[in-house]
Amino acid sequence: MLCIPGQRLCASSERFVAGKGTYVQHGYIYSSLSGSINIHRQQDKKTLVEVQRCAGTNIIPTPGSVVTVKIISINPRFCKCSILAIEDSPVWEPFRGVIRKEDVRAFEKDKVEMSKTFRIGDIVLARVVSIGDAMSYFLTTAENELGVVVALSDAGIPMTPVSWTEVQCPVSYIKQPRKVARLAASATTAHASSRCTNEMQMT
Description:
mainly beta; CATH 2.40.50.140; 2 domains; cytoplasm; RNA binding; exosome; EXOSC1_C
């Protein structure tokens, strides 16, 4: 049997357990991708429900997933973004995401100013909280490892983090406020940041 992303498969219980390609929400098991449904009866008498992806299908964000997003609009209450990748997998068609003011950080939420947290075009790491309205996803950056990972200056130059709340242009030395992600310095991170920067400059 085939299914599509977001399709409800069955109730989640002690008997039916969510496996690969699925997620649990509101007491039900849903498919997180397009593919075929596989039912596996285990030795403990539990039934494992999995979805095997068909070639050429797209994955969807699920609660708890870390996503890479691009900020597309900002207002005092929230910012809208386009989801570019889920974990390490790029998406074929971007999904819509929303980061609300109260989900930016875990402390002093009432003092958050969205215009001093993100700017249009920023590449941000966020975590999926839940599915919102109109097939958009509520996201959070309220963890040290989440936040802005790539920001460009007004001249299009990649900016360097100087603290958890500021980035600086290496040419003009102008600083701008941001909610900066704490990332381990690694070749993988550098490569990902470089790729995101190239995408930003082309758009």
